[in-house]
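Exercise 3.2. Students should predict the tertiary structure of the chain below and write it as structure tokens, then compare their answer with the key that follows.

Predict this chain's 3D structure.
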Amino acid sequence: MKKLLFLLGFALFLAACNNSNDNTADADTTAAKGEEEPEVDAETALLQNNMPQLFAYLSNSDSSFSPQQFDMTGTRDLDTSVTTPVTEKQMEMFRTCLVFSPDSSQALDLFSYNYVLVPTRDGGIRAEQGGPDTEAALIDFKSGIRKRIYFSGPSSALLDARWLPDGTFLLAGGEVLTRNRLLPFIWKVDPRSNRIDVYSYSDTLQATADSYKRTLCKFLQ
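Answer key:
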């Protein structure tokens, strides 16, 4: 009888140990799942991979920033009706601030409309803001034509632009709500079809456009 009771008690002890191990394993699995990074869809990855400098700036400026909060909110047509002739010589001083296409035949210009280059006392050059409006343009050096692709008043600011290997480009900006609050957006533009895919951020961020743009153009002070 004593032997039977001993064996029964030993069996219950083993069962308790197994349950404890199973619970520990389940807890470890749950914890591991909780630590996994959220999955990034293809569209978010496209924006993140091609604008790492901008995304790093937004993340450092506001800890709440998350790439997953960019959502495609619609499409629109690109208006390129405002055009002006331009030469490479005219753009020479701004050349280091242009964003060139992969074959260098085209460039995105975020600065020449908004800033005027003036000489400094030490013989250098700096850019002074020429007005409150904001413009971006697409320059085609083969045809010598500069096409306006974005225009706004002081309520919006441009941040960055990047070409993609397929000939499309990204244009990033933000609605300026207060001096240090931005509501970011990114356009994915196909200049061949004049189609814009609009990606809007779901919340405002604590960030300023001017401090970031100084990293893109060495003339900005």
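Discussion points: Residues 2-14, 19-27, 29-34 have pLDDT under 50 and may be disordered. The longest helix spans residues 2-34.
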